[in-house]
Give the backbone structure.
Amino acid sequence: MKFLVTGATGKLGSKIVEKILETIPASQLVVSVRNPEKAKHLSERGVEVRHGDFDLPETMDAAFTGIDRLLIISADGDNETRIRQHTDAIAAAERANVQLIAYTSIANASESKMILSPPHQATEAAILKTGIPYAFLRNNWYLENEIASIQGVLAGAPWVTSAKTGRTGWALQQDYAEAAATVLTGEGHENKIYELSGTPLTQEALVSALESVLEKDIAVQQVDDDTYADTMKDAGVPEAVIPFLLGIQEGIREGELDVVSSDFESVLGRPATSIKEALRIILNQIS
């Protein structure tokens, strides 16, 4: 059986590949990457590296040939671009007669009003339309997304948010990667939707856990969206990115990431890494 992972040199993709290689021979794994040279370290370990560029649909046909199970990792970019890229990749998977498509989606994708949700909704719908067995990995939120805020706290800044009492199911990328690897290579995951979420926490609860780990007090500033935007601008965030960040804060505030689920435990046989332990891991990575 041949397994393929797209975006295998990215932050999440590289973690998924490493988990897969713990359980199957390298000869069964294929990776599809925009720049094969960046995956040379994988080819040296026996992994087949293929050129697959979501912006060049013809490369997807060659990349997916002979693949039994495919993991499409959500691409980066604006919503319109991602919808086009994902749709083209799914069409190529259908032409290649893959037997399963796993996809890294977003929390509660079918109902979500999050700024990030349209590409995931369109992608899930496109996969369903093919009739190919699927597994939707609805990843809630990476704790790594908060690294900039954590670094700010370490430098003495307050934790600034406009998310109010909205809760987020933070988990480590490593947990999401292990779940994806398990679903792609394991049995019994066909036509399943997994809501992969840590225990939902408010911003204050996350900061309280961080205070405990750092053994220091951290001020939390709940602000309105205009003040949050100004704070991000003052911190050097590009103006084009700020509306996107505001949309995320709004989505959290409106409960879009407040998902209570035991699917991590169902897939991994354990819950997601506890928030304090996850924060310790993050702090070790950035220290």
User: Anything to note?
Assistant: The domain at 3-139+173-196+260-272 is CATH 3.40.50.720 (Rossmann fold).
